[in-house]
Design a protein that fits this description.
alpha+beta; BirA Bifunctional Protein, domain 2; Enolase-like, domain 1; 2 domains; eight-stranded mixed β-sheet; five-stranded antiparallel β-sheet; about 30% helix; about 30% strand
Amino acid sequence: MLFVKNPFLDPWFNIAAEEYLLKQFNKEIIMLWRSNPSIIVGKHQNTLAEINLEYVRKNEIPVVRRLSGGGTVFHDPGNINFTFIKKADKENLVNFRGHTQPVIDFLQSLGVDARFEGKNDLRVNGLKISGNAEHIHKEKVLHHGTLLFDSDLGKLNEAIKAKEQNFESKAVKSLRSRVTNISRFLQTPLSREDFMEKLESYFFQHYPFLEKYDFRADDIRAINRIKEEKYIKWEWNFGWSPVYTFKNRIKFREKVLSLEMKVNKGKIEFVSIIVSNDKLADNDPFISGLKDIQHKPEEIEKLLAATDFYGFNSINDPWQLLGLFF
């Protein structure tokens, strides 16, 4: 079994690294890693329904879709991620309790009363400190989880404050839980780095045949290729979302604007806009312009500016109107 202590903080690279290790290595693997502030959504989720898009755009927070299912999580350097890639028999491929037990035992050794609760969470006093997800590839399982050590919980809560009620789809929805940081419960204070060192040492004690492995230059090139071809692309991170209907209603310049859209593979297939009880005609230049474009702020912002829809070009804060569509 190999132990990889991934030094990179690039969230796109790190998610690509998991896929690379899963599909290109025969040995079982443990990886510890962290990322810069980012939102990681589950494979079967509707990305826009899971995030606070206005906040994410203003703060330039990357949004990355991962291989595994489950719900949305927030990463930053105060969140330590662990990945297990193991061979498993067909009868026992999915085993959240089994994979998280060594982590629970480690936390208990530090005096943190962590417990497996809910569907796949680790909690202390009922508060979530770790979310976990799994992905099956052939006869291997990728299990990964978060460990909120001293994460920015304010940014976390704001970034994933979404408009779920505006979306209708068969996408997997996140189960929102109250979260907390592990550092609060330590009997002896530790830095992030010390915490990771202790976790690494614990894994080497728990798995006696563990060997250290550092990414080589050819590994890094291969991971970056996966990142460029898949994980930084809008088509994967947003366009992969299941078919959805989006509805919204805002008051703008003393008018009430109501919107309904159907989006398939990231593109707008159907749109209806009603302005103070008057429905815009299907041949309206703005309605026509919306059809078949990607449901992304840059595309709709461009169209709003080109048509100057309801004085868009004179608005100090473009989100006043752009927010209707998200």
